[in-house]
Amino acid sequence: MQSIPARSDHSHANETAGAGGVPLTVSMPVGVARAGVIVLHEVWGLSAPVTALVVRLAGCGYITAAPHLYHRIADPVVTNGKFTQARRHHDTLTREGLTFDIESALSWVRAQGAQKVAVIGFSMGGTLALWAAATLHIDAAVTFYGAGLASPRWPGILSGIDAVRVLKAPWLGIYAGTDASTPARDLQQVREILTHNTTQSAVVVYPKVRHGFALDPDLPRHAADEATDAFERTSLFLKTHLR
User: Fold this and answer.
1) Bridge partners for 203 per DSSP
2) Domain 14-242 has what CATH class?
3) Which residues on neighbouring strands pair with residue 40, listed in sequence order?
4) Are the CB atoms for 189 and 175 separated by under 8 Å?
5) Concatenated DSSP letters for 129-192?
6) What are the residue boundaries of the Dienelactone hydrolase domain, all occurrences included (predicted)?
7) For residue 23, what are the β-bridge partners?
8) For residue 116, what is the enclosing H or E element?
9) C-alpha distances in Å from residue 74, one per residue of 46, 96, 181
10) Which residue in 143, 108, 112 sits closest to 129, CA to CA?
11) At CA 53, angle to CA 201 and CA 93, rounded to 5?
12) How confident is the model at residue 1 (pLDDT cuts 50, 70, 90)?
């Protein structure tokens, strides 16, 4: 599989509904695909950069779907940086609703022919991707700078450190070295736990970058070199565990 490109000229995104009416942004690859990816969005909602990644992943040959995790509150997309507003939406999420929405996306992707499925999440979605690797029936997961390592973000959702202790699926954690929401002591604890884990999981920390460095190239915090490396690592990880 090729590395995840900066853009794709071969696919486009559509809107559909998964089981239970969960809104999904989806993209299908050209030809027959036997693997899929679920993308879990940031606290800002299902934004244009998330949709672009869905298309990019389909361009790599994956059946791809992103559930709209805010659909119970009119499915808002918040301007990046307006955290107080986004936090209100974040705080409406529940373990039951999140489980239902992610499993709805998984069911849709499998119904399209995916035999193996990974979950990739960014920030808020990264927290959920790690939790999914510990609790849901998936084949791999990638977390980009998901907070909540030492304490849970929602009732009933494992903290990141507790999730690492009970990982079921291979997991790749990608973190920013200057991110106050994922302190070095927490990342070191994750690494120590992984030394006793048999799921082929790993943590990568880019020491000079900020939270949110990878997904949106238009943000000042975007770090092009580190983002390119992170997506290359992600591409290899998916190829290893989904093919």
Assistant:
1) 173
2) alpha beta
3) 121
4) no
5) HHHHHHHS--SEEEEES---SSS-SSTTSPPHHHHHHT--S-EEEEEETT-TTS-HHHHHHHHH
6) 28-241
7) 17
8) strand 116-122
9) 12, 18, 28
10) 143
11) 75
12) very low
Whether pLDDT at 2 is above 60: no
pLDDT digits (tens, 9 = 90+) for 148-165: 999 999 999 999 999 999
The span from the CA of 22 to the CA of 72, in Å, is 9
To the nearest whole percent, how much of the chain has pLDDT over 70?
Answer: 95
CA 36/CA 58 separation, integer angstroms: 9
The angle subtended at Cα 222 by Cα 217 and Cα 224, nearest 5°, is: 80
Domain ranges of the chain: 14-242
Type of residue at 26: V
What Å distances lie between residue 179 and 158, 205, 206, 212, CA to CA? Answer: 21, 10, 10, 9
pTM of this prediction? 0.95
